[in-house]
Design a protein that fits this description.
Elements (H helix, E strand, L loop, with lengths): L9 H13 L3 H13 L6 H13 L3 H13 L6 H13 L3 H13 L6 H14 L2 H14 L5 H13 L3 H13 L6 H13 L3 H13 L6 H13 L3 H13 L6 H13 L3 H13 L7 H9 L8 H6 L2
Protein name: Pentatricopeptide repeat-containing protein mitochondrial
Pfam family, one: PPR_3
Organism: Dorcoceras hygrometricum
Length: 315
């Protein structure tokens, strides 16, 4: 552009800053940001938000907060996007007190928090096991007049399930219908988590079947949780059934889960079934690369009648 004597405008600079941030070249993004100001172009809220997001993606939260202060001093008011970006970063770091302070600051600035703001915070508190605070924020949404979406409900349900409050979680699921919201894969995964916490493998599998009938697709994490719950209860037949459904969807098991299952089968005198499973997985090119090493560690602690080498050679 410069060679053609065309002067880039703020919009152009913002795109370049954003591009550098997306590829992780934060130093270059900062350089372009400074160059823009040296050219006499006033940075916009988009300029600041883009660079703040860049800092947050690198875990440089203090730099992001300092830039927010700079934009305010220069007369550029932070937007909901500014706050949402910082709140999300603090939640990911587990710094929920700081994230909540930003929510309070938003309200003082008469900036209306969005559904994204609340979803981020509720999810943060749910991940930390603080369901009381998550529910308080959920109620605050209604007071503020912000309609909860399926992501909100999933965050609340997940939090309740993680601490074993499955009855309250079921009540929240029932509310979805009255709110004209449809449960998705994340909803079912959260409910499976709740039953897994209670070591209720049968209920986990029932919810999984309901999930599939609803047209939702379980991911690797859901399958791993199901298998893990069956293994904790030493219900190896159930674990094998889930594993077969997993490979039927072309999802590879991780080496640790597969090793524990094979070890359990060996200890219950079902070495042949373990061999057959390995053949099935190998035939679909889904065998974890480090399965031999992982199984060696696990089998060394238990029954060694079926060695990692014999498992590998069966493929």
């Amino acid at each position: 552009m410069c060679r053609c004597r065309i002067s880039p405008n703020v919009y152009t600079y913002n795109m370049v800053i954003g591009a550098f941030c997306r590829v992780g070249k934060l130093d270059m993004a900062v350089e372009v940001f400074k160059k823009m100001e040296l050219k006499g172009l006033a940075s916009t809220v988009v300029s600041y938000n883009t660079l703040i997001a860049g800092y947050c993606s690198k875990g440089l939260l203090s730099s992001g907060m300092k830039l927010k202060d700079v934009m305010e001093r220069k007369g550029v008011s932070p937007s909901a996007v500014t706050y949402n970006t910082l709140i999300n970063a603090f939640c990911k770091e587990g710094k929920l007190h700081e994230a909540n302070k930003l929510l309070s600051e938003m309200k003082r600035m008469q900036l209306v928090p969005t559904v994204v703001t609340y979803n981020t915070l509720i999810n943060g508190y749910s991940e930390s096991g603080n369901t009381e605070m998550g529910n308080r924020l959920f109620e605050d949404m209604a007071v503020t007049g912000i309609k909860a979406d399926i992501i909100t409900y999933n965050a609340v349900i997940k939090g309740l399930c993680k601490v074993g409050k499955t009855k309250k979680a079921a009540y929240m699921v029932k509310k979805l219908d009255s709110e004209k919201l449809i449960p998705n894969a994340s909803t079912f995964a959260a409910l499976i988590t709740g039953q897994s916490v209670r070591n209720n493998a049968g209920s986990c599998f029932s919810i999984y079947k309901m999930m599939v009938r609803s047209g939702c697709h379980p991911n690797e994490g859901t399958f791993k949780m199901l298998i893990s719950t069956f293994l904790k209860n030493e219900e190896y037949s159930g674990a094998v059934q889930v594993l077969r459904e997993m490979i039927g969807r072309a999802i590879a098991p991780d080496s640790e889960t597969l090793s524990y299952l094979c070890n359990g089968l060996c200890q219950s005198n079902r070495e042949e079934l373990a061999m057959d499973l390995c053949k099935e997985i190998g035939s679909q090119q889904l065998m974890p690369e480090d399965f031999g090493n992982q199984s060696s560690n696990i089998l060394s602690m238990g029954d060694t009648r079926l060695s990692p080498c014999s498992l590998r050679s069966s493929l």
